Amino acid sequence: MTSLTWTFRLPQLLIVTWRAQRGVHDEPQHALMGPITPKMLETMEIPWSCFLRKPPILAGIGSGVAHMDSTGRPYALVMQKGTVAPYALRAGAGGLLVHVVP
Questions:
Q1: Of 98, 51, 46, 40, nearest to 78 (Cα)?
Q2: What region does 49 belong to: left with phi over 0, alpha with psi -120 to 50, or beta?
Q3: DSSP characters over the chain
Q4: CB of 78 within 8 A of CB of 50?
Q5: Phi first, then psi: what are they for 30, rounded to 5°?
Q6: What is the pLDDT of residues 16-55, one digit of tens each?
Q7: Closest CA to 57 of 5, 27, 94, 99
Q8: Are 14 and 77 in contact (CB under 8 A)?
Q9: DSSP 8-state secondary structure symbol assigned to residue 29
């Protein structure tokens, strides 16, 4: 994220999970990542915004696309705990399906 994408202006839309976000109970192994996730993105000069917690969760993606189009650099969408929930697999689906928590 700090070498090739910066030098060669390779836009990438990042989906980042925010484990142990401040004030949200999570597993102890996420305790360090919670407070530093936003700081890491900011240190790497990667602008970011959070997914909305209800539909349309991608309503804010326009600013990310505009940033990538104008700069050629990455943009991060940060997913907070509880944004999506498990969804039962259907026969033949072949993968994990998720749905937005209402």
A1: 51
A2: beta
A3: --SHHHHTT---EEEEEETT-TTS---GGGTTHHHHHHHHHHHTT--EEEPPSSSSTTTTHHHHHHHHHHH---EEEEEETTSEEEEPPPTT--S-EEEE--
A4: yes
A5: -100, 0
A6: 988 887 777 778 787 788 889 999 999 999 999 988 777 7
A7: 99
A8: yes
A9: G
- Write out the H or E segment, with its range, that includes residue 89: none
Residue type, 68: M
Other CB atoms within 10 Å distance of the CB of residue 55: 11
pLDDT of residue 93: 57
C-alpha span between 95 and 4 (Å, rounded): 31
pLDDT in tens, 61-86: 888 999 999 999 999 999 888 777 77
| DSSP string over 60-76 | THHHHHHHHHHH---EE
Where do the structural domains in the chain lie, given as residue ranges?
4-100
List 78's β-bridge partners, or say none.
16, 50
Please give the structure tokens belonging to residue 35.
């407070």
